[in-house]
Design goal:
The structure holds 2 protein chains of 2 kinds.
Chain A (H helix, E strand, L loop, with lengths): L4 E3 L2 E4 L5 E6 L6 E7 L6 E7 L2 E5 L6 E5 L5 E5 L8 E8 L9 E2 L3 E5 L1
Chain B lengths: L4 E3 L2 E5 L4 E6 L6 E7 L6 E6 L5 E4 L2 E5 L5 E6 L8 E8 L7 E2 L3 E6 L1
Parallel strand pairs in B: 2-11
Antiparallel strand pairs in B: 1-3, 3-8, 4-5, 4-9, 6-7, 7-8, 9-10, 9-11
Classes of the chains: A mainly beta, B mainly beta.
Chain lengths: 114, 111
């Protein structure tokens, strides 16, 4: 049973560029959340997608946007990259059903902005 | 962004020793979670807690959901080298809601 798959694993971008990160959720999961983890910090919630709509959003600027596809996979887009956007970006999937707590994280995409 | 207050930030212990770490929040949560993160990997769930006062074990790990719902602790007994890693607490306000993480406790175990 495949867990959460993220691509690419590493990425180097230049300031001002745009980036797209991808996530395939665990089988049976329909909700995808994205987190940003700066070096030495805990993950910070960016947003959550369910039924192809953004359901919750953390304290991140509009430069951060996302999308969820009918097969539940998701993309995170970041425009006008800043040096401070360098971080590990984690995708977490979960089933929406009541009583479930199961957030499964992927291994992340390490983004470096130079 | 909002983070929980997790302590200690790091621990250096001898193999076989017990470990205790805790997490506090200014907000009330209805779920507390404890994760472990190894280098180059995402966090892996260790223990989930759903009720105030709940004490839950997973092998050598024991965690408790504080009575005030604003804190939680994690104990590791008889540590072994593979316990090395970063441990995060996380709180959640509601079912399906976002997770709010602590800053992490980095554990080093000397054989």
């Amino acid at each position: 049973d495949a867990g959460v798959t993220q691509s690419p694993t590493h990425l180097i971008k230049t300031r001002g560029q745009q980036v797209t990160l991808r996530c395939s959720p665990k089988s049976g999961h329909d909700t995808v959340s994205w987190y940003q983890q700066a070096l030495g910090q805990g993950p910070q919630f960016i947003f959550q997608y369910y039924e192809e709509e953004e359901r919750q959003r953390g304290n991140f600027p509009d430069r951060f946007s996302g999308h969820q596809f009918p097969n539940y996979s998701s993309e995170l887009n970041v425009n006008a990259l800043l040096l401070g956007d360098s971080a590990l970006y984690l995708c977490a999937s979960s089933p929406r059903r009541v009583g479930s707590y199961g957030y499964t994280f992927g291994s992340g995409t390490r983004l470096t902005v130079v | 962004g909002q983070q929980l207050n997790q302590s200690p930030q790091s621990m250096f212990i001898q193999e076989g020793e017990d470990v205790s770490m805790n997490c506090t929040s200014s907000s009330i949560f209805n779920t507390w979670l404890w994760y472990k993160q190894d280098p180059g990997e995402g966090p892996v769930l260790l223990i989930a807690l759903y009720k105030a006062g709940e004490l839950t074990s997973n092998g050598r790990l024991t965690a408790q959901f504080g009575i005030t719902r604003k804190d939680s602790f994690l104990n590791i007994s008889a540590s072994i080298p593979s316990d090395v890693g970063i441990y995060f607490c996380a709180g959640r306000y509601n079912q399906g809601g976002k997770l709010i993480f602590g800053q992490g406790t980095e554990l080093s175990v000397k054989p």
